[in-house]
Amino acid sequence: MHERSLPASPNWYCSRCSDVNSSGLLGVGAKNIIYLIDVSASSCRVAGELVGHKGLVSGFAFCQHAGQSHICVSSSNDGNVLFWDSDNKTLIREHAAHQSPVSAVHWSPVDKNLVVSGDEKGIVVCHWYHTGDTASFFPEPRTIFCLTCSPHTWSCVAVGYKDGMIVLIDVSKKGEVMHRLRGHDDEIHSLAWSPLANENTLYSRPEDTEATNGITAGEEKGCYLASGSKDQTVRIWSTAKGKGVMTMKLPYLKKRGSAVDPGVKERLWLNVHWPKGRATQLVSSCFSGELVMWDLTKTGKQRWTLFGTSSEGQNHSRIVFNMSSVHLQDDRELLLSTSMDRDIKCWDLASLDCCWTLPTLGGFVYALTFSPVGAGCLALGVGDNMIRVWNTLTTQNQYDTRSFWQGIKSKVTALAWHPKREGSLSFGTDDGKVGVYDVFSNKPPQISSSYHRKTVYTLAWGPPVPPMSFGAAGGKPSYSLYSCAGEGVILQHDPSKLSGEASDIDRLIKDTNNIKHKLSPHTDLSWKPDGKVVAIGNEDGCIDVYEAPSLKLLCSIQQHHKIINTLRWHHDHSSPTELHCLLASGSSNAVVYVHDLRSVIENPPESPAMLTEPYRRLCGHTAKITGMAWSPHHDARLVTVSYDGTAQVWDVLQEAPVSNYRGHVGYLLCVDWSPVDPDVIWTGGKDFTLQEWRVSKQEFTNPPKGKKMLDLKEKMKANPKQKKKNKKAAGATGAPPPPETNGQPVTGGEKAATGQEPSDEDEEDEVSSTNSSLPPSGTFETQRKSSTAAKSKDKPDLNLLKRKKPRSMLPISTSMDHRPKEELLQDCITLASVKHSDAPPAGCVPGQGQHIHLGLFSDRQALYRMFEAEEESHVEAGHFESVVYLRLWSGDLEGALQLATEKGELNDHLLSVAPMAGFEVWNRTVEAFVKQLCLQEQYLKAASHLLSINKLYEAVDLLRSHKLYREAIALVKARLPADEPVLKELYTCWASTLEKDGHFSAAAKCYVAAGASFDAAKVIARKNDVSSLRTAASLARISGEVMLAQSLAMRCAKDLAAAQDWVGAQEVLSSQESLLVHRLHLCVAELLSVMLAEVVPQSCISSHPWTSPGEQHVSIQDRVRDVWEEQFGVSLKSAGHRSARALLQELKSAESPTPTANVPLRQVLLYSSLHLTRSVLSWLSDDDGQLIKELWQAVTWLRDAGHFSVSAELCRLLFPEGDVTVCSRKHLKTLHHTEEEEAKAAADSLQAFVHLHRLYERWWSRSAYNQKVQNGCSPSAADSSPGDETKDKVVNGGSSESGQSSICSANGRFGELGFDASLLLSEPHAACQATQRSVREIQERLAAMVLKHGRAQGGQLDTGEKQADSPAAGESSDSQGPSDAGQRPDDQETLLSLSVKMSDYQKQLADLPETIKMYPHPDVVECCLVLLHFSKSTPSVSESLQQETKHLLRKYGTSPSVLKASQRFLT
To answer: Given the DSSP bridges, would you call strands 552-557 and 609-611 parallel, antiparallel or unpaired?
Structure first.
């Protein structure tokens, strides 16, 4: 179809977007088209395109099987996979199995019917070509980057992912994962299988492999797999073992004299290709476009060889994306590579040299022009920000092109060669830049300092005109450069001094022709080749012809009625002179006009002529004309290109079409005739291609008609044009299929395409621009993203064009202007009659009825009539805002405000004009607006408006009622005095709201501000943590709330003490002098805690230095007195509030509940230390009775709470000598309390317990000794446990600790008790304890009877319930029932008899003295058993004492367990 062609650039960041078949046909995906290129060792030729994808092509592969090698498959980012016949260029089948963009596709080298594709979500699809079936798998939830089918096993597919994982899957087993190959830590760009089906060809060093020392002959069946990753390594994997065997780091190559810095992460795409038949040679891409051949049998630097080292400039200049190889019939093996530098290169794999380079284009071809001086030198202006200069006549290199990019940085939209100076090429860009390149030097271009505001449309060289032509005789230039751009201005640049300011030729035109009005914006210009006249095309379709150098207007051609896109004068060499004055013009309507201006030019008229008829009319195109060129070889032969996607050759004189070229996809933008071959024309367009074609070889003569015309009309309806001043809008939105979809009308021709590029190109251009500085985050993803970005970027532009017009204020009169043309013309006559005659035509009242719209053009009364009618229509339509504005305009401000108020349509603008209607109206309007705002929940704005009418209290109420307390308070504080009552109310309300929501500290601030410090402290304390309590106490103290401060400080100190933070607790209390006694209590608690540390190990947060152990054998009371005196100044001598009596009085109010077993040990110690504190204060007050009672309480708390061993240790600390009457040796204190019965009872009880602890100490120390003697043979259970209760107490009390501590105190005296044991054998206490035991026993039996009775009653319950209950009940009765039931003959006692017994026992207890019940002794029976136990082994228990113990046992030891234990002593 075409001779030579430059195709579109291959897509970037795709793992396999090009492939070559066995006959040397290369397929390359570029945008949404696949270009087919015939390749050989010497040349290449674009053979055709495969058109059908809607999205970007993301993958392409040929079927490599004989007889089917013309079939190929491609994928795109819209999720479709298409099968093609490359011979016929037709689509065979389309599969839409993917829901996401497809990122890779491959045709199996083993199975001629299997195609595998993968998408960004990780879905792998198998397509069966012969049946059309598909099967989907989801091996891994990751983004697929590449996949390759094994050349040896049809079902094995290697898949590479974005995160560096490679997975081998078996597609015959539903995508089951065979191996996961881990090693890369970044994107997998490419995978290649070894052509050999075994693993015995390579050699690797130990450091290259993880576990193998050289790969031995394939023990298992497998095949090597090569992978290239963004992590800069190529890895070879053993698929038999499922692990890596070799890693090759890319070599850092010196480029342009500087070494690559490995630390700089530069852009990289690592493609690998394993050529067929080369088992040990692998090709990979490198950092900046180099290709490397790896020899896998070698090591070190010998391992890799660079391609293209035989001469300079063979390599790609930027990263390489794809490689494929082919073995041709002539036994040449070729490698084909595509790169970011937009070149396709062919390499000879034998010599590693470049055979040829095919340049490609990355943007619209906006301009193409042959040099008038250098034969066959073609310049292209392209949308990829580059100029290409192609020497089309060289014989050895068909594609001898050079690219120029320096100083451009934007799409190149216009080009013009200098008419005389060889190599001087001017260019204009999308961003308004104008410059001149010398294409034969390597210098950067000269850039004009005068920029256009918009896209440069046209450049032309012509004779200078004033003021530039006024230079000195030798100094003025022979040519000036003229540029015309999108803002409608033509500038004249001096090419010898581009840094100087360019001149706007409009000034000269206006001055010369005495024009006062504004000139229409210019859109094109063309100098006649002889330089005598210039034709300028305008936006309004008019063409003006001016005479140089003064630019006198010769004539104006009023033929086109749309923007002029292109003007061309007929050439003046070797053609009849009558043709020299032909001017061809093309505009945004599809007809080409040719004008003969000979008479006007040869005989200039005095006043400018107006031409309305063309010399020739060329009809046939169906869309706007974008470019044209006269044939330099023929007379009056013209070629035109159009948005209808075709190029048309015309015989102008005959008005006859000669030939029509339809080889492009999409609209055309530029054309030029070959300067050397009369039959050859070059065209470029939207499809990113430049094409060379022969006029004589085209099958069509006329442009296409029919469907395109219909599509065009439909599009015209769908997209009504918006005339936009100086702006040419965007073209098609980039749907690729044939040109009809691209004929979308826009207000601007070639200029349109220039002014704003449609999305197709934006897609690729954007990619190139984003990738020019930073590497993309993800390969093909980037391109895909950019396309969506481009689309979304385009949409706003289209929306700008199609932006919905604002609603008309005068819809009726506006609609009257859209009536038939005849009626509109009649309106003009009617209006003229009304204006210029006294009596208007009959029945015509401007502003009413049929003539409502004339109210706008008549007097004010007519306008008011029109307004009334318009208002009625607005009210009917519900457009009250428009009614308000009409009333406003007519001066009825109050009516306007009234209506807006009624309809709830008030706004800030209406409020701002309300004061014009007077204060009352304004006041009312503000109040109404406030109500409206409240309904709209805009309370802050409403309150602000109330302030404007001085309603401050109402504004505050409004804010408060909607809980905007913060703003209300700010308003009150800013505008009202500090003692304003409303302020306190606001603070209180806000505080209670905050308190409900749990914002205690914020609520406290409100209470403080409101003067309610008590509430502030209370609310902070609600959080109940240490920091809150401490803060609350400080706040209360500062505010003078003494009692609250004390109670909060106490709560805080207790929490700190419980957590063993003694220093913190003392600090909290020290801030208040009145809490001294509580500090003393904490001091005692801390000392007690430290002294009991061996028995009760606790984690202490902080403690004071004075707690460190003092002298040995000093009682705890002495330690306390010493510390109090040193640290707190409390002693016998202190007076006032520090006197012991005053402090004791204070401490009596402190709570001390009854001891129970549920209280935690730390709390028990605090209660115990409280009594200890009272006892020391009683001692200082010389109150012995109180002293002994408090000591008894301190010990009892620990014992009753179940801490036997701790209680024992405390007794030892209180009475180191074991005598309770000796309170202190240091301070010589002995107790005398014989006169007080209670004190005596307390002392006896305390002494008895001290004896008990000493008794147990002796026993435990003896047990330990015996154990040592017997080498671990412990006595029998009966021997060692005198009774169950004893055993319990021993075990529960933690005997081991006490035992250890008391072995020392026993001092080895096993033979003596060392105390008077008779105190433990108190008969009154034994009687009391026996009675209490009997009461407990009866209570247990009563409970058992009640339970039994309840179960008997449960007969009515359903069986399920009974079964559920019975086991539990049984257990409880067994456990709770008296253990001696079997021994009692009178077991069948009744409830009555038990109750009688119970009352007898209770009476006996009531008769006992109170002191016996209040100050109990240790269990007498238990003590008897222990003493008898001692008597068996040591003579320390006297005979009389033994007799007494036996007597008491016989009398009171009635329980079964005691009887059992005492048998051996009593028999």
So the answer is: parallel
